[in-house]
């Protein structure tokens, strides 16, 4: 049986999927890249943990993304031999730097871990006494300047070093805030449009005052160009999540940028102990998984993938629109989670169900489907789905709305 027919057969075996929505949108290529399914033991079933179709996106609470078989193979391979941990990190760091055309790189424990070790590297340099001193920053540069609109929860990763944050709004305020204790300037790419200082100006301010700049790009692939763009723009350090758009291990990430800071950041990580990042260990399995995921991501046809997402979103949108009183909006967030996305809205006096109840019914149905949104809309993306699941989602969305 061809893999395409296998997928279709599996789909038609699912309840509530009747092939009602017309011809399959699966391309042979899309099927080839589906994840490797676990064999034999069904752990989630055994544990009574329900799996679901992810129509939401890359959420930590939903365990992020699914790994391609090249990635799980790399992880399995890594689990079978001993190597020297530092040597492996050194070599993979070089390889990633080459792939992403930057000075140096390391695999971190998520984007969050990248932020902590990156700042720790900036603060302590190669001085191992200082490394051992953190999170006590007495006598060390310990202030990080951020734009107020960028200071959302993720800045806690910076506080983990013992540093403190200094909020500013304008370039003028930023320059005034710089003093002998200023360690770093930190930028949140997702909130680019909410701050007054843009990326180029931010980098220029860092250079003017000789202070390193760091940009958090955790959720900023796609587009693939972002993996190259910000180191080339002049940011000293750049962080990406490994387990979002790149679909590597969910607890891995990438720290890219200047060699001197990344080598210093590594001094805080295992195998060294008595450091703040001893608990942010990235062992061989995840190092190899991250490398494999990055290679697969760079090699893929991004245009084709984008078209697939657009078609999937349109299919779900059309299905929702077939219910009277329902409106949809297709949009692409400009920064972070930059993928075709759908908002489904309705007048609750016409379609008599709240948005919360709609999400709950999708979650409680068969198969379970996770969506996002607030009081005004149900939000859907398809980039974290496996090909074919969009038809199940389209069908269920229509059913729940039509039966409201
Ligand atoms: C997801 C995210 C993080 C955390 O990334 P992890 O890879 O889960 O550690 C940090 N910053 C932003 C903006 C994010 O979206």
UniProtKB/TrEMBL annotation:
Modified positions (N6-(pyridoxal phosphate)lysine) in chain numbering: 244
Alphabetic keyword roster: Pyridoxal phosphate, Signal, Transferase
Matches recorded under InterPro entries: PyrdxlP-dep_Trfase (IPR015424), PyrdxlP-dep_Trfase_major (IPR015421), SelA-like (IPR018319), TAT_signal (IPR006311)
Cofactor(s) demanded: pyridoxal 5'-phosphate
Segment forming the signal sequence: 1-30
Single GO MF descriptor: L-seryl-tRNA(Sec) selenium transferase activity
Assigned protein family: Belongs to the SelA family.
Entry-linked PANTHER family: L-SERYL-TRNA(SEC) SELENIUM TRANSFERASE (PTHR32328)
Protein's UniProt name: L-seryl-tRNA(Ser) seleniumtransferase
């Amino acid at each position: 049986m061809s893999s395409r027919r296998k997928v279709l057969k599996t789909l038609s075996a699912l309840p509530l999927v009747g092939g009602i929505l017309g011809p399959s949108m699966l391309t042979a290529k899309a099927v080839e890249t589906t994840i490797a399914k676990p064999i034999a033991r069904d752990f989630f079933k055994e544990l009574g943990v329900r799996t679901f179709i992810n129509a939401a996106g890359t959420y930590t609470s939903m365990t992020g993304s699914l790994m391609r078989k090249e990635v799980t193979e790399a992880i399995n391979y890594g689990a079978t031999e001993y190597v020297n941990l530092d040597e492996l990190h050194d070599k993979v760091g070089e390889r990633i730097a080459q792939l992403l055309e930057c000075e140096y790189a390391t695999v971190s424990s998520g984007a969050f871990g990248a932020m902590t070790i990156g700042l720790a590297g900036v603060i302590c340099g190669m001085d191992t006494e200082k490394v051992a001193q953190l999170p006590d920053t007495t006598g060390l540069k310990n202030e990080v300047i951020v734009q107020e609109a960028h200071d959302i929860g993720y800045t806690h990763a910076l506080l983990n070093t013992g540093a403190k944050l200094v909020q500013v709004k304008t370039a003028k305020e930023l320059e005034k805030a710089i003093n002998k204790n200023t360690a770093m300037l930190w930028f949140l790419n997702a909130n680019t449009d909410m701050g007054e200082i843009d990326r180029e100006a931010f980098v220029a301010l860092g250079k003017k005052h000789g202070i390193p700049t760091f940009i958090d790009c955790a959720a900023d692939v796609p587009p693939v160009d972002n993996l190259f763009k910000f180191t080339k723009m002049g940011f000293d350090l750049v962080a990406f999540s490994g387990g979002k758009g790149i679909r590597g291990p969910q607890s891995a990430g990438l720290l890219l940028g200047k060699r001197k800071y990344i080598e210093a950041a590594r001094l805080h990580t295992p195998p060294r102990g008595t450091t703040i990042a001893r608990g942010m260990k990235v062992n061989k399995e995840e190092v190899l998984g991250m490398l494999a995921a990055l290679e697969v991501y760079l090699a893929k046809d991004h245009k084709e993938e984008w078209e697939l997402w657009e078609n999937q979103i349109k299919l779900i949108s059309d299905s929702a629109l077939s219910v009277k009183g329902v409106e949809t909006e297709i949009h692409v967030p400009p920064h972070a989670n930059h993928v075709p996305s759908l908002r489904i809205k309705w007048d609750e006096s016409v379609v008599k169900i709240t948005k919360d109840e709609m999400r709950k019914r999708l979650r409680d149905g068969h198969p379970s489907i996770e969506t996002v949104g607030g009081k005004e809309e149900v939000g859907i993306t398809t980039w974290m789905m496996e090909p074919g699941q969009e038809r199940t989602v389209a069908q269920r969305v229509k059913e729940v709305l039509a039966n409201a």
